[in-house]
Amino acid sequence: MTLHTQYLTMFLMLGSGFCLGVILDTYRVLKGRFHIRGWAVSLIDLLYWFVCSGLVFSVLFWSNWGELRFYIFLAIILGVFLYYQWLSKIMTRLIETCIRVIEWIIQFHIKTVQMIVIRPILFTIHLIRKLLLFVLQLFWKMLQIFLRPLLWLCSPITKRIEPHVRPYINRGILLGKKWLEKWRQRKKKDDSE
Prior knowledge:
Blueprint: H1 3-33, H2 39-64, H3 70-86, H4 88-192
Helix pairs in contact: 1-2, 1-3, 1-4
């Protein structure tokens, strides 16, 4: 390995140490921000080490065909140390600011979609519902006006039939009330579970 290759490898490993620090700070900020706990932490830790190992060894393979020397480990450790001494606090604040900006952008887009798409649709549905109710009420009133003379003409027949039909109607109303009460009790029971 030439001296040029060794210097290149040394600087790239310092940079890899910086990258490891940035990735670790990003992970720490995200873990605190989203309150990640339990087995997810172990899984993400494992993922972190896989990503970092892949990053370091791909850079190492690119720079010196994967030759592993002791000074390479020292360069990585020195890169992480220098990052935490100089840039960790600044980078943590920058990451937190980026997360806040991203959250704000997402909330802005959600509110915009609500204002531009969802509210007009809901307003249109509400308006159509009101219009349909108005038309149905108008139709019902007109039907009552037109049927009133017919009901008057049929009243002698209905007076004779009503005593015979009334028990069946009352029984149907009673069964409907019982069914409705059972349905309400079942719904309350399902909601409480």
